[in-house]
């Protein structure tokens, strides 16, 4: 598969002590480096994104981009003739599936699927539309790389229904579908724009190269360009030394330990041995934290949240910051272990979202600071979610200043503005290293707008 590896000259495979292989860097790489740019084999939009994006290149509809429906099935949308009639859609699969698509989408077996399985059923249908490509493509192609992937271990695996072209050999097509699904069921990716999920995709080379870690040194991002298939890029989170393994997260490291453990075992057939899993395994089970919204728990919860903020962000309100050290969780004091409980993060996120949207900015800032502290504790430095949340916290602080107006004492206003600059600086550092991705606009433009509003350099 030398042709496939030629797409990724910054890594090469070596034997892995407990897995199949490890992708290691061929040279030292600075933080923010693109390790690999990998084309998709197949992608499919989530139902919520249909008619909002081109089904091929995923560009959003806008004043400049007008989507047009497929004149045959009226169920797919394209930004122009290149996507509608080109090699990546019409010739690749839609010509074969167009006439039978609506009947398939209305079928009982398709409608009975969960939303994410419906997306995977459409992905699978695309991949079996031309059975010959799995026999005739050259050895170095994405097809051969895909077939080189290991089959998934799921004990509860089931056969997804597929939309078959008219005249297809049903038995042979279903056999191929089962063979393909046994691989991509545990090797497809959730595509995101500005960390918001919008599609599923198959990127065989990424699946073949990069192992998982809950403390990764790289992450995936997706590049959307008009009239081109979506590209995945693997971006480093920190400086990488030569011959160091490049790892990515297969799931959100902030998920509870037991959830991650069960999902990795069920979907991929392994138990993660990263430092975060080892630490959480050592303290499991953790005590239930005080419950939000319960009167008798308010004071205990306030103390827990405050202790977390001091531990992860610092005690001085004028110099709060996210530590640039990996493995902060390993030094967590026992009184804070309950923040790793499965109930703590969801309830905290809900409070921040609710208060910030309802204009309760004082409460929102406190919840937002606590959430940032938890992210700093769990995620490795420069993880994109840290930058995105630091930006949201900056906007919440700005809303607090704007709504309070002259009611805020001058000194307090200065402290709040200094905090905005500090958290906006954190957001800029993380997200500018992560780089442009997804749709036009988004967090990098928001950072620039806030910079202009505040004036002066960020610290």
Characteristics:
459 residues; alpha+beta; three-stranded antiparallel β-sheet; 17 helices; 12 strands; 12% strand
Could you please describe the fold and organization of this structure?
With 459 residues, this protein is of the alpha+beta class. Helix content is 44%, strand content 12%. It contains 17 helices and 12 strands. The protein has helices at residues 2-5, 81-85, 90-105, 108-111, 115-128, 133-136, 142-147, 170-184, 204-209, 257-268, 275-283, 298-313, 344-357, 361-378, 384-404, 410-434, 443-454; strands at 11-15, 21-25, 34-39, 42-45, 68-69, 77-78, 188-193, 196-202, 211-212, 218-223, 231-236, 247-248. The protein has a 3-stranded antiparallel sheet with strand order 3-11-10, with no helix packed on it. The chain has a 3-stranded antiparallel sheet with strand order 4-8-7, with helices on one face. A two-stranded antiparallel ribbon has the order 1-2. A hairpin with a 5-residue loop joins strand 1 (11-15) and strand 2. Helix 14 (361-378) runs antiparallel to helix 15 (384-404) and helix 16 runs antiparallel to helix 17 (443-454). The longest helix has 25 residues, at 410-434. The protein is globular, with a radius of gyration of 24 Å. The mean pLDDT is 92.
């Amino acid at each position: 598969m030398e042709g496939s590896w030629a797409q990724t000259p910054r890594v090469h495979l070596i034997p892995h002590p407990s897995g199949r292989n490890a992708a290691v860097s061929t040279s030292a790489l600075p933080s923010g480096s693109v390790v690999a740019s990998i084309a998709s084999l197949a992608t499919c939009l989530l139902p919520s994104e249909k008619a909002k994006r081109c089904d091929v290149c995923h560009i959003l509809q806008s004043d400049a981009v007008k989507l047009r429906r497929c004149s045959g099935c009226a169920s797919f949308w394209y930004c122009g003739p290149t996507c509608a009639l080109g090699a990546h859609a019409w010739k690749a699969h839609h010509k074969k599936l167009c006439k039978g698509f609506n009947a398939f989408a209305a079928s009982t077996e398709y409608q009975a699927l969960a939303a994410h399985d419906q997306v995977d059923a459409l992905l699978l249908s695309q991949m079996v539309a031309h059975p010959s490509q799995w026999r005739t493509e050259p050895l170095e192609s994405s097809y051969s790389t895909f077939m080189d992937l290991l089959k998934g271990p799921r004990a509860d695996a089931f056969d997804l229904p597929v939309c078959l072209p008219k005249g297809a050999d049903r038995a042979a097509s279903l056999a191929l579908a089962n063979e393909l699904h046994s691989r991509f069921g545990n090797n497809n990716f959730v595509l995101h724009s500005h960390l918001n999920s919008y599609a599923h995709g198959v990127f065989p080379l990424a699946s073949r190269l990069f192992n998982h870690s809950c403390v990764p040194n790289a992450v995936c991002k997706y590049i959307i360009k008009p009239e081109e298939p979506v590209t995945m890029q693997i971006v480093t989170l920190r400086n990488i030394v030569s011959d160091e393994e490049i790892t990515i997260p297969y799931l959100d490291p902030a998920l509870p330990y037991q959830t991650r453990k069960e999902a990795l075992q069920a979907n991929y057939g392994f138990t993660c041995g990263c430092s975060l899993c080892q630490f959480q395994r050592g303290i499991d089970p953790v005590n239930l934290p005080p419950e939000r919204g319960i009167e008798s728990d308010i004071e205990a919860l306030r103390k827990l949240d405050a202790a977390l903020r001091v531990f992860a962000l610092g005690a001085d309100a004028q110099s709060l910051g996210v530590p640039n050290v990996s493995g902060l969780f390993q030094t967590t004091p026992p009184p804070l272990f309950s923040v790793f409980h499965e109930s703590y993060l969801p309830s905290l996120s809900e409070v921040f979202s609710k208060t910030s949207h309802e204009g309760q900015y004082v409460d929102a800032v406190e919840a937002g600071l606590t959430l940032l502290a938890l992210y700093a504790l769990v995620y490795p430095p420069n993880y994109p979610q840290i930058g995105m949340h630091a930006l949201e916290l900056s906007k919440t602080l700005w809303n607090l200043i704007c709504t309070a107006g002259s009611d805020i004492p001058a000194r307090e206003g200065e402290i709040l503005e200094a905090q905005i600059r500090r958290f906006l600086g954190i957001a800029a550092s993380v997200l500018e290293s992560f780089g442009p991705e997804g749709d036009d606009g988004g967090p990098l433009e928001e950072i620039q707008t806030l910079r202009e509003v505040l004036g002066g350099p960020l610290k």
